[in-house]
Give the backbone structure.
Amino acid sequence: MHFTSEQRLDDAVLEREFTLGEIPGILWTPASASASAPTPLILAGPAPLGLRTMYPRLVARALHAAADGFATATIELPGSGDRPRWPAAEQARADLRRVMAAGEPVTDEIIDALVLPLVDKAVPEWQSALDALLSLPEIGGAVGYSGGVISIGTRLAVVEPRISAAVLFAGSFIPRAVLEEARQVTIPLHVLLQWDDEGNDRQAALDLFDAFGSKEKTLHANTGGHTGVPQFAGDAAAQFFTRHLK
């Protein structure tokens, strides 16, 4: 991990951009974090739109988490932002746009091509980032995962034992293989679902929630579109992390 820049936000949070190999990322740590008092960590999964596009939403989440005593880190997804182009992913997105524009059903083949290669690439990168982040003296204790592509969060919850709780955002297509993986998830979950999300298969999101094997899992469904998550729903997610990461 190589830090490339840093700045103070409101004198309460240190924001540092970093690279991990070719992967860009950002780490936000509260002023209280130190080697003698390391802070728990939340991994903030971005949408595949690029960190520059997602920055306002990510920094808002990080500032909220810092006020609760947590560090937050995010990394750029494969093929997004300033990372090298990924022709197969671009073709999958083009196929999705074509069938949706034509009013045709989105087939399992299109969903698999769109999501599964991204999960296969992104999850090991998140694990490498977690290795590097937990080596920092000011980071320590429990780890949570928040947001992002729900299939990535599901896979991480299965394969990464250092993640002890997750807030997952329903709102992306879900391969059938991920539904099967969900049965292996056992950590506490808090799932946010926008009931009127124009790009989300609501029934698939409900099926995924039902498949999760966790004994503690909560579904918060609210009316509104993809970006209309109400503030109180975000507050409830923050309270979930306070219960499980401290």
User: Anything to note?
Assistant: Helices lie at 51-67, 87-101, 108-134, 150-159, 176-182, 202-211, 231-245. The longest strand covers residues 139-147. The chain has one domain: 2-84+122-245. The CA atoms of residues 136 and 147 lie 23 Å apart.
